[in-house]
What we know:
With 272 residues, this protein is α/β, with parallel strands linked by helices. Helix content is 39%, strand content 21%. It is globular and about 45 Å long.
Amino acid sequence: xxxxxxxxxxxxxxxxxxxxxxxxxxxxxxxxxxxxxxxxxxxxxxxxxxxxxxxxxxxxxxxxxxxxxxxxxxxxxxxxxxxxxxxxxxxxxxxxxxxxxxxxxxxxxxxxxxxxxxxxxxxxxxxxxxxxxxxxxxxxxxxxxxxxxxxxxxxxxxxxxxxxxxxxxxxxxxxxxxxxxxxxxxxxxxxxxxxxxxxxxxxxxxxxxxxxxxxxxxxxxxxxxxxxxxxxxxxxxxxxxxxxxxxxxxxxxxxxxxxxxxxxxxxxxxxx
Length: 272
């Protein structure tokens, strides 16, 4: 059986993040990837220089084309960009959620270089979409925007998780990459369990595409039927090794190394 997954996200012309990173991750994890493009960015390792939103009608057409022909077991949503795109995806999922399997939402707001990837007036629409997910994977700045809380330590992070659950969101992973601690700690609250996964912080420049690749690995593992808790640990191992062995391309922030990430999954016996 060929496992199949879907990514709904923006295109990164530099290949390090977005749709391109998702499809690389899917393939290296042994999953056939399909895609719905929500935006086209002019982007490289140095920054984002232009964004073109795909018309909502075309987003909806792509969604129907994928689910009408493929057996999607898990779906990841990344960059949506504006209210119209979010509404198009929301309307589709309300009618066809079962056709995309497990749903992971990475609430992309800001690119690694600082460019805004979500219009300010779109946050409310995004919050309406999030309860449809099985799990969401915000970083700390994104969690702060979604909850309105300041997150500075584990206690405030726990309050943010509580508030996200109160908003109707079932599963939460808040990634700790933006903190200054020696250990990079991601807090997980899924299925009534709350715990953290952590690795010693890696002082590397290869961090372009971290959020996309982490959530894409989680999606791929869930598409293969890996249990949620194991899939989360797989995704942590994937991104840790991908950051530790950056790809030396471009003159800006190096992309993560998806091949090294896949080797980590293979070592955990969950590649295929």
